Amino acid sequence: MSLPPGFLDELRARVPISRVIGRRVVWDRHKSNQAKGDWWAPCPFHQEKTASFHCDDQKGFYYCFGCQAKGDVIGFLRELDGMDFMGAVKAVAAEAGMSVPEPDPRARAAQDRNAQLAEVTDAANRWFRLQLQSAGAAAARDYLTRRGLDQAALDRFEIGFAPDGRQGLRAALRDKGLADALIAESGMTIAPDDGGQPFDRFRGRIMFPIRDSRERVIGFGGRAMDPNARAKYLNSPETPLFDKGRNLYNVGPARAAVAKGASLLVAEGYMDVIALDRAGFGGAVAPLGTAITEEQLRLMWRIAPEPVVMLDGDAAGQRAAMRLIDLALPMTGPGQALRFAVLPPGLDPDDLVRDRGQAAMAEVIAGARPLVDLLWQRETEGKVFDSPERKAALDSALRAAIGRIPDESTRAHYAEAIRDKRRELFGQAGRASNRESWQAQPRKGGRRAPEASATAPARASVFVGRDAGDTLLEGAALLLCATHPALVAEVETRLERLAPQDAGRAALVHDLLAGTDSAAGRGAIEALRADPHLGLIPAEGEQAGAILLNVLDRLESARAARLELPRAEAEISGETDEGLTWRMSQLARAREAANHPRLSDTRDLGEDREALSLQLNEWVAGQIWRKPGR
């Protein structure tokens, strides 16, 4: 039945989800916050004593941190009471005092048609199962036996057989009174272009029925017995019932297994799912003959927050994983992650379990790697980074990929993970030695810079625009980092945000972060040292970090004002949202940091180049990094 737009939203808004769920659970009064609509209880979907089941009235959703059951009030009634969709809608509508709209005649007709198509596919499934017991299916039974499938497995997955004839299934369905048009629409027969008699689509194949989450048979997958068949596997065509991009093989049983604690495993095909299930991994599903789609990813995440994608160890498996990266990144975030388990080369799940046992499969699953590892592998494997340009190309590709992640916190964690991998790739030793080369060349009479003090003094304050003042501060920050390499680790994330417009300075930023030593970077250092406004930047000093933090604070305060205020002003004219609130808080935080002096003996730096230069020189002349008595 089709409902008017907005009806379900209004229904959910009128009935707090805790009112319906509260009749089935006992709320934990100590952990719950009734005033905020935040409720906790032992989960009704699995046996437990602790309150891991969370219900949020404001969002209208429930989630169990134990079994990962989740959904809205309608989903709760469907999952717990076994109601169909309209039954759950009517129950909640009665609670809200709302009447359910009369059905749309067109929607009712489509629903009736789908019920008729499901009748055809269900009858076909029963016929295929009978044929597996016939004399003509001996080879199919032998194959299944060799694959280790006993009768229990055949019954569990309802495996059947389509004889190698053109009219067997069609005749059987017609004998049940089903019309040719309906049989063809269900995908069970093919009508020839020349107008001849329709013939069976599946012939000489082992048949795997595909059920949806409502347990209806919506289509089939067929494995050819003839090794010379044009297609080893053949799936039902798209029908009103069957959309291969929106369904998964074994989705219903897998959902039930995940609710009991199993991992959601995404295998390549039907036999892989069956092998995993028989080995004790009941949460296995598979796409239906195509690469994983966006809709299938969303379906997986409705079942579990972190599905494990099982990959063959061959090149095809690796290519499939790399394609999935681009699909998943714009959708990933809290509660929507992926992990990848790579099988040994040449082995599918059935081979691995049969040859090495269940423990070997469990070890492969436990060793599943996060998506960020696959992203790094894709961008670095087989490549050589022996020049600044190649390293810059790597940085650009990774930034572009990470930039597609919508959730800000997830993006930040990806960036942190990538920074760690860059250090590992380019080597801590190389980076340290490069910094030492800068440290080993202090100005005449200077000393090597000691490690930055763990206790940083207060910061100076100033507000500047994107002008000469910004350029000077940027140069001061870079020269301080080049002269005091030990400080770089403390301000890495802040250096990454500098984005100098000058090519030489940009190369220097890359050198500082990657531990490299480029000609362009060295040229930038010399240019900065030759700048009369920066000529007294100290070659030593225990509190050089204090100056650096002052400079970076001022740059970030200016950037916050320059970038966030115009965006906030543009949004004030529309609806206030969380993004606006966040941006205003970020601006306030930046200005607050800049307005609390870190150096008690310094004055405001002013806004022009000369004033900034005088302040930098005053710090140096006063030797503020020296302790009293030196």
TrEMBL record:
Pfam families reported for this sequence: DNAG_N, Toprim_4, Zn_ribbon_DnaG
Necessary cofactors: Zn(2+)
Annotated Toprim domain residues: 262-346
Gene3D superfamilies: 3.40.1360.10, DNA primase, catalytic core, N-terminal domain, Zinc finger, CHC2-type domain
Keywords assigned: DNA replication, DNA-binding, DNA-directed RNA polymerase, Magnesium, Metal-binding, Nucleotidyltransferase, Primosome, Transcription, Transferase, Zinc, Zinc-finger
EC number: 2.7.7.101
InterPro entries, per the entry: DNA_primase_core_N_sf, DNA_primase_DnaG, DNA_primase_Znf_CHC2, DnaG_bac, DNAG_N, DnaG_primase, TOPRIM_DnaG_bac, TOPRIM_dom
Catalytic activities: ssDNA + n NTP = ssDNA/pppN(pN)n-1 hybrid + (n-1) diphosphate
Chain intervals for the UniProt region annotation (Disordered): 429-457
Recorded superkingdom: Bacteria
ZnF endpoints (CHC2-type): 43-67
Binding note for cofactor: Binds 1 zinc ion per monomer.
Cited SUPFAM superfamilies: DNA primase core, Zinc beta-ribbon
Subunit structure: Monomer. Interacts with DnaB.
Domains: entry comment: Contains an N-terminal zinc-binding domain, a central core domain that contains the primase activity, and a C-terminal DnaB-binding domain.
Family statement drawn from the similarity comment of this UniProt entry: Belongs to the DnaG primase family.
Known role: RNA polymerase that catalyzes the synthesis of short RNA molecules used as primers for DNA polymerase during DNA replication.
Protein name in the entry: DNA primase
Organism: Paracoccus albicereus
